[in-house]
## 1
Amino acid sequence: MSEPDTTETRLRALMLESLNGDAGAYRTLLSELRRHLYRYFTRRLHAAHAAYAEDLVQETLLAIHSRRMSYDRKRPFTAWLHAVAHHKFVDHVRRYSLRVTVPLDDDAPLFARDDTADAATRMDLDTALHTVPKRTETLIRKVRIEGASIAEAAKASNMSETAAKVSIHRGLKALTARFSGGNK
Amino acid sequence: MTDELIARLSNNLKPVPHNAVQLMILGALAIGGVVAVSALLMELGFRADIDVAMLGPVFWIKSAYTMAIAVLGGVLTLTLVRPEGRIKWPWFAAPILVLILALGAATQLMGTDQQTAMVYILGGSALVCPWLIVALSSPILATLLVAMRRLAPANPTLAGLAAGMLAGGPGRGFIRSTVAKTAWHSF
């Protein structure tokens, strides 16, 4: 995973190209933002509201599109993005009157690394994934954790989509069998 | 779903000009200003002594004061229409300006006897002017607000107040050129 600074540099470069009318850069930008925003919202949403994350991602992408004029090219992009996402989140909280308070200044930056609880989970995840073949591990990581599509992951591993799907399925099955704590 | 959305959005991408926000606010000011000036010329016409008034310092002091408030409003507006825009100093600068004007008016009143002072305070137009100012500012405010709806103010209330300051400046300026009489107009 890249440092926040390089994320900022990369996303800002994509945004500047998008503002100049480069549709390809824009598509890349929106796809990357989709992943980042999904994590951003799932981390903030109450567990009962986790299902709204995808809706919020879409609303935010729409807002980014229709309000992209309000981004000042001279200023940090992630700050702008964060502000838009934050307002979408606040809108959501208000809509469902959850009475969750989110002080603006205490709000974690959008691309902060995962906190300790997540780090523990990640270590567990690493240990577990090491028990399946390397290629399967890569595929599972790409598709199930980083959110890539099956097609992208298959291409990266140089195999057909069907083979990738089967491989992921087998890998997950093996993991379930191993960690479900009994014979099934 | 999200993939479709991304495809749809990136397929009809239009380039955004540099300074798009500034252009939009300026455009709104221009359109609203034209409407306000035409309404002014049709309904009121310039004050008969505009050429004399423009020679005196009072006319220019008042104009500078209203313009300063409008500039503060403009600075605030340009910052507050951005979602991450934060700015404080104009909110403090504006009351200070008002205070300076109030002090100026007070010193002027000190030097006059009670009768004349009442004339200065009430003037000949205090009952009409506020309404005219509101009427002339409203087309500018309206076009500004329409433009701002396409941007992303984090706090619409504050952004609206900033737009009001910006719109009120020219409104008062136009009025000044028609019926100006007392210091209190500028409020």
Note: The two ends of chain A are 36 Å apart (CA to CA).
## 2
Amino acid sequence: MAEVRLTGLTKSYGSVHALRGVDLEVDDGEFFVLFGPSAAGKTTTLRVIAGLEKPDAGTLMVDGIDLAGTPVKRRDMAMVFQSFALYPHLTTFQNLAYPLREMKMRRAEIDSRVRETAELLRITHTLDRRPASLSGGEQQRLAIGRAIIRRPRLFLFDEPLTNLDAKLRHDMRAEFKRLHRELGTTTIYATPDQLEALSIGERIAVIQHGQITQVDTPDRLYAKPVDRHVASLIGDPPINLVKGTLKLGGNTGPAIELPFMELDGNPWRERLQALDAGTELLVGIRPHDLSLVEENGDGVPATIEITEPQGDITILDLSAAGVPLRMVVAEATGARYTAGDSVRIALAGADTRLFLSDSGTMVA
Amino acid sequence: MARRRREIGKAGWGRTAFSTVISFIYFFPVLWIILTAFKSHTDALSTPPKFIFTPTLDNFVSVFARAYERGGAAVDTHFDLFFFNSIFIAGASVGVALIIGTIAAYGFSRWPLRGNETYLFIILTTRMLPPIIVIIPIFIMFRLSGLSGSYIGIILLYAAFNLPFTIWMMKSFFDEIPREVEDAARMDGSSEMKIFFRICLPQVKAGIAATAVFGLILTWNEFLFALLLTGRDTRTVPVAMAQTIGGDIGVRWGLLAAIETLFLIPVVFVTFLLQNQLLRGVTFGTIRR
């Protein structure tokens, strides 16, 4: 069990700034996800926590104790690496036993712990084999096994599912949740996959260019992204960002001029009135907020560029007054259209968000 | 008539026969030596050469003991000692080079110095000169330090010769193994010493085997320095062989061939023993894992 506090962590490799001041608070027993694109600083953050890298500045506290001078082996943490980093010359049994032998555990106890862990992860049949002869899923479970067998106070998972195929990934996500429920150990889990982040994390930190931009629960990240970058990272298909200009002083209240329509600004009246007229805004429209309207309706004209059937739903790539838009329709509806068709679309603004065009910060 | 299909990648008879001929041409000198070792003195000298003859083991016997003059008593030639010298000197020098070289290579790979590449280059430059150029200074050094004719002297010299190659070879093997595995061991509580011995060394076993074989062959066959720097008791087989040439009945080709045949055995044996490791060592890192 552990409670982790990072403050102002920075780390550079030559001229590359991997971390530019990372602040994080992970609560005891929490399943915390570090989410961000590749090279955002996820791995570096985990390696600093583990003690494998020394930060240039900043502090790392675990359970209120500064770990700056604590060597890796005394930190009592376990890590699952993206490459699994199994010991290639040792069998599954020896891989699992390795951390226990380092703890100078008695042979009989090692034996029973290894068997118990192998049982839990369903790799008992591989105990006498070397990693090279295991399947991807088995290797991955072995990597997890080697981490949990020691019962450390903190788990660090570095993109553990990235090297697996889609089906296996799905199964393993459930596995991680089950393990966390059973062991209750504080976990920091890095992933570049938003689906993984949203489905597995109790709280998620979005990390970009070596900085944490937002820490929130999955639903709040989706509903209230702090800026356009977070908005475009969360949600599949990604949010549509359309440039618009703020109009104030009309009879009907504030409005935003988009290339293909004028958007009523009244839902965000107070926030918008604090801005200058003519402010450039980015309007974030979730694909599911767009809908098709039947002929003669009052929607906006658009042309279908591409249809992408996904099985249960179909993604339509549209062009409205030259602006590319993505929307989601039911598969049956999507099947009625082909590229080149003209349609009319309407916007239900429930999840629409406004961002400042220059800084990308959320306005409303 | 349809051509018979064969598996993709399997050579046909034509290619196999062609390869066999080429291999035979390459192998012929070795074969000739082995045949000659079993010939009597007259058979060995006959023109045209004889391929069918009555084999004899006389040459092998006289490697170790022979009469220097017709009718004289058989005298010990000390070739058992020379074979021991060759094996001991080659084994010890390659062993020393491997121990120092592997540790050094690990250092160069994992804890690079400022200007790491320069150091590695300088290490390699020691092998850029033809050996003959440095032989006089080395000879003088051996004389002054009293190392001439001693086991330790020639072993150290050969170890020094093998060291650059060992370091370069082993560094490339260490570079190939992923560092995350070491990080994993670090997190599992291992000390740096343990990481080297328990995690890294086992992973480069194939590399050690390959490096050892190359070093052994090189050292085994060395002649020039052995000629100048070994003494009566530390003489290696190549030097002793050269001194066998000559005598009252001209060059005894059969005897020479017998020595060479015996001389081949340890190399063939070691290479055969390590061949699986060797192949893996040589092709190491050529396939993405």
Note: Chain A has ten helices and 20 strands.
